[in-house]
Design brief:
heterotrimer; A mainly alpha (about 325); B alpha/beta (about 425); C mainly alpha (about 290); A: about 325 residues; mainly alpha; MetI-like fold; 2 domains; B: about 425 residues; alpha/beta; D-Maltodextrin-Binding Protein, domain 2; four-stranded mixed sheet; 20 helices; 14 strands; about 45% helix; globular
Chain lengths: ~325, ~425, ~290
């Protein structure tokens, strides 16, 4: 791969640079202050506002707290919250199930479809700009607005029912209210966005594949599709990993879309919503909310580590 | 308490020719919560902030009107309007954060809960001045567990079967003939045969169908059982709860198929648009009837008797009002002046001019329009007034526990399993 | 481009499928725009699937005048613009150090930023809410004197979260730029600040532009933080304010559609005028170098 050559060159340059710098490592006081500021300010902001709150939330998941009356009212209860949400919370099961559906649909349908579209778009067929624009457009529209856009299309008196001639209340398909249907509608809409995202990432990755590799495969008599499968896809390992990570993380973090549709109740429960509900909603069961958040955290750790490994394994 | 409200609070109301059209004088309201005190930029005015959840029509008009009236009365109000659902959902963080001095809320368990947690400022000083304007029942409903008053009640509204007279006439159903549950079911069958949705049902927000649960429960098992159940003295596994669910089940075939996709507004619109024959809803559903002719066509009847032992002796008729947050302690004179203003007839008369209703102040003008009069009649004829499921029980139980349970029931869930889970979740609640 | 192997029929089928897919993709957007110009009464009378009989601007006028969409839009801009500039500035500084001055902490630090970017926002909310109630701000920013319910608070949280992604992307970008360029600066005796500002920052510009476009749309589209960190209805950015509109016009879909169009129009505009940057921004993070 040509990238590897470049990387190796970079490493050499970096090594040379390091030697050079070691010689000049006597920074002036001003330089030291500049570097300290450059690193310190962003790091402090990020750690103080992202990592410390995250750790606090994990700690809170082992407590009872209704959020009122300051920190002294916090009571340590061990794993009680976890036991309770698993045993008692009627939303726990549906939320786990829906997050898994989300993951399954993204991983098995939306992501492969995005890759497939990238493959076709990459052929630079007639009208390619139009196709690309169409697929990217949902990406710039917020999920909250997305919910509103699709609301009317699937509503009982909306477009689809109207086209099907379901004009009476009894014949109309209740896409939003029926807990066995609404999650699939939501997943369709979420895929509408996700497919474009994956396509975009993959397309960029494919552009970086050395054309000579494909040409070689073509000369060997491979069909385009098998070239794609056997040459292009394997050479895109970094992009593949990113796509897997994006797919998993996005499936776990899902929130806005269901929240705008029905606040994530009735068939649309998700872990992310339960965090919000238990902390901000009427219940003030901060322990439960924190426990859900921690579960989410634990589920995210795996993909995060894979991602880090992918990005940093080649460094010293 | 309810008895007293009926005797003292409502029946003595004087009468005013209600003019919903009177709203026109008021500039279109500020969702934006702009400082509306500019109409009377009097340097002597005190300033208090007000958190309003009155975001749905005709709320913005009402807010703009009374804020102007308050400015004229010497109080500049800094209005902060948050959309209704967000406000209700986030009340806890709102109160723990930087709440406005005075804010929209209501009587019931949750008010007492906030008071107990020290999130409110007592309004006892205000009550000392306004005592004579309110029936003792309202005072009782405004009182926390510590015996101090917190709420200044503004208005209340009954939950009942709301319908359009013209629709019932066209279907040939006489509203006055609906005396028993069997009558109601029979009427539903007629409406269904004529192509109407007999009963519009909503529960997208998780609270709309609680009114139906309450009324069927009170009709089936009586007011005391409702109170006991809400307070945790009666158990959800009690067979009486199953009777309530069983009765409701009889009505489900007559509801629209998509209750969980409907809000109070969309379901109310089904009645407005003559697609549905009736709706079990609070009388605020009249807010949808912006056209005078439509409004005059709107009427209500009490939910019919189920168990003769209880007849129609109880209803949900929640009391809305305003509370002072603990932030008001830093701005007490202004906040108390605002509370006092809201308690006065200056406030209620301003609102009545836009949207007539039942006001708590006994000297408030009462609109003579037949719809308001029918509400007065209904509450007068009722012995027990309940607040509403989500106001009568613990907030962390009402949402998301009961709300999800009722949604599950409406989508064909097994009522025995639902009740069992409800009790298990009640038992697991942390001590209040 | 490799050509050949696909048959003519296959090509036609492919193009046909792409066209069908594309149309399915844009349809909801076009439909929403179309509905936003129809009066509610029209739809009520003829049904959702009917051909429009009348077109009107009244939904837009209503959305703009009654619902103050314009000021909600300004709120969004007031949050997104400073947040994006601050994030890019801070991230470019740390990325400069991480890519130009070797230290054994560099990789660890970069991992902290990268992983932080992937954390679910719900995990951060409770402690941040408490923290925001404790941090004092001058009264002209918030008369309650705390960071909670201020646009500054919203800006800060966006900066903190987005720093993760931006640092990661910019560090990777800088690593692809040969270090000889820096060497020459060092030979000239430039100090660290000059090295950053005169040499590195100009090189970063294309990456900053792409990242900036991308982050503007992200922050503009944020829903979660603006709902949880702001109390005042009037301070809400446009995405969160749409829920106002939902309550107000629950049954009037056409008005809601106009509100939705007003909310997504700016992002569509940014997208069409700066599509290259948008795409480049999204892919900066995905392809190493």
């Amino acid at each position: 791969m040509s990238n590897d050559v470049a990387t190796r060159k970079e490493v050499k340059i970096a090594k040379a640079g390091r030697k050079a710098r070691r010689r000049n490592h006597n920074f002036s006081g001003g330089d030291r202050a500049t570097i300290a500021t450059f690193v310190g300010v962003p790091t402090l902001i990020h750690i103080f506002m992202v990592w410390i709150p995250a750790i606090c939330t994990v700690l809170l998941s082992f407590t009872f707290w209704d959020g009122i009356g300051g920190l002294k009212n916090i009571k340590w209860v061990g794993f009680t919250n976890y036991r309770q949400i698993i045993q008692l919370d009627a939303d726990f099961g549906p939320a786990i199930r829906n997050n898994l559906y989300w993951l399954a649909v993204f991983a098995l349908i939306a992501t492969p479809l995005g890759i497939l579209l990238a493959y076709y778009i990459d052929k630079n067929l007639k009208g390619t700009k139009f196709y690309q624009t169409s697929f990217y457009m949902p990406l710039v529209i917020s999920l909250a607005v997305t919910g509103i856009i699709w609301d009317y299309i699937f509503n009982s008196d909306g477009l689809i029912n109207s086209l099907l001639g379901n004009n009476t209340n009894d014949s109309a398909i209740d896409f939003w209210g029926d807990p066995n249907k609404n999650i699939w509608v939501v997943l369709f809409i979420a895929s509408w966005r996700h497919i474009g995202y994956i396509m975009l990432l993959y397309l960029a990755g494919m552009k970086s594949v050395d054309p000579s590799l494909r040409e070689a495969a073509a000369i060997d008599g491979a069909t385009e599709w098998s070239t794609f499968r056997k040459v292009v896809v394997p050479s895109l390992r970094p992009v593949n990993v990113i796509i897997i990570v994006v797919t998993i993380i996005e499936s776990l973090r899902a929130f806005d879309l269901v929240y705008i549709i029905n606040r994530g109740t009735n068939g649309l429960q998700l872990l992310g919503v339960l965090v919000y509900d238990n902390i901000l909603g009427s219940s003030m069961r901060i322990g439960w909310g924190a426990a859900y958040a921690t579960l989410l955290f634990i589920l995210c750790i795996g993909p995060i580590i894979v991602y880090l490994y992918q990005n940093f394994s080649r460094e010293d | 308490m309810s008895d007293m409200i009926n005797e003292e609070g409502v029946s003595r109301r004087s009468v005013l020719k209600g003019a919903a059209a009177g709203a026109a004088v008021v500039a279109a309201g500020g969702l934006l919560g702009a400082t509306a005190g500019s109409t009377a930029a009097n340097a002597a005015n005190v300033t208090a902030s007000f958190g309003s959840n009155n975001s749905n029509p005709p709320g913005p008009k009402e807010d703009a009107a009374w804020v102007a009236a308050a400015a004229a009365a010497g109080i500049d109000v800094k209005l902060n309007v948050v959309d209704h659902n967000t406000f209700q959902n986030q009340i806890n963080t709102y109160l723990q954060g930087t709440p406005d001095d005075v804010f929209d809320w209501f009587a019931g368990y949750r008010m007492q809960f906030f008071a107990k947690k020290g999130l409110l400022t007592p309004a006892t000083a205000v009550w000392a001045k306004i005592n004579a304007d309110f029936a003792p029942g309202f005072k009782a409903a405004s009182t926390g567990l510590d015996g101090k008053q917190y709420l200044v009640p503004t208005d209340w509204y009954p939950w009942a079967l709301h319908y359009r007279k013209s629709v019932w006439k066209a279907a040939g159903v006489n509203p006055q003939s609906i005396k028993t549950f069997a009558d109601l079911v029979a009427a539903c069958k007629v409406f269904k045969s004529k192509g109407y949705i007999p009963m519009a049902m909503a529960d997208k927000g998780g609270w709309e169908a609680m009114g139906t649960f309450d009324i069927i429960n009170m009709r089936t098992n009586g007011y005391q059982f409702h109170v006991d159940l809400m307070a945790g003295r009666a158990k959800w596994t009690d067979p009486r709860v199953q009777k309530t669910f069983a009765n409701w089940k009889t009505l489900i075939p007559f509801q629209n198929k998509s209750p969980l996709n409907e809000t109070d507004q969309t379901a109310g619109t089904m009645v407005l648009q003559k697609k549905a024959a009736m709706i079990m809803m609070g009388s605020f559903t009249s807010g949808l009837y912006t056209n005078k002719a439509d409004y005059n066509d709107l009427a209500l009847i009490p939910f019919p008797s189920i168990n003769p032992a209880y007849g129609t002796d109880s209803i949900d008729a929640p009391i809305d009002g305003v509370l002072m947050s603990n932030a008001a302690a830093k701005n007490l004179p202004a906040a108390e002046a605002l509370m006092e203003f809201i308690a006065s007839t200056k406030f209620s008369d301003t609102i009545t001019a836009i949207a007539p209703g039942l006001f708590a102040n006994k000297h408030a003008k009462v609109s003579s329009d037949p719809f308001i009069q029918s509400q007065v009649k209904l509450v007068n004829a009722t012995k027990h007034v309940a607040q509403f499921l989500d106001r009568d029980t613990r907030p962390d139980f009402a949402y998301p526990i009961v709300s999800a349970a009722i949604q599950k029931f409406l989508t064909g869930g097994d009522s025995v399993a639902i009740a069992k889970n409800l009790q298990a979740q009640w038992d697991a609640l942390p001590p209040a | 481009m490799v050509t050949g192997k696909t048959s003519k029929v296959g090509l036609r089928v492919t193009i046909g499928l792409l066209i069908v897919f594309s149309i399915v993709w844009v349809f909801p957007i076009i439909f929403t725009i179309l509905e936003s110009f129809r009066p509610y009464g029209d739809v009520l009378k003829y049904g959702a699937a009917s051909w429009p009989q009348h077109l009107t601007f009244s939904n837009y006028i209503n959305a703009l005048v009654q619902s103050h969409m314009w000021s909600f839009f300004l709120n969004s801009v007031e949050v997104a613009v400073p947040a994006v500039f601050l994030t890019l500035f801070l991230a470019s500084m740390i990325a400069f150090v991480l890519s130009r001055y070797e230290s054994r902490w560099n990789v660890a630090l970069l991992m902290v930023f990268t992983a932080g970017n992937l954390l679910p926002p719900q995990l951060l909310f409770i402690p941040l809410f408490r923290l925001y109630l404790k941090i004092p701000v001058p009264h002209f920013l918030n008369e309650n004197g705390v960071l909670y319910d201020t646009q500054l608070g919203l800006v800060l949280v966006h900066v903190a979260v987005q720093l993760g992604f931006a640092t990661f992307v910019l560090t990777n970008f800088l690593r692809t730029i040969p270090k000889e360029i820096s060497e020459s600066a060092l030979v000239d005796g430039a100090n660290v600040w000059q090295h950053y500002w005169k040499i590195i920052f100009p090189l970063l510009r294309p990456a900053l532009a792409s990242l900036g476009v991308l982050m503007t749309t992200w922050i503009y589209n944020d829903f979660f933080w603006s709902v949880v960190l702001l109390k005042s209805g009037a301070k809400r950015p446009i995405t969160a304010a749409l829920s106002n509109l939902q309550g107000l016009y629950n049954t009037d879909y056409n008005l809601l559609a106009a509100g939705a169009v007003l909310a997504f129009l700016p992002t569509l505009f940014v997208f069409f005028s700066m599509r290259k940057h948008f795409v480049a921004g999204l892919t900066l993070g995905s392809t190493k170098g």
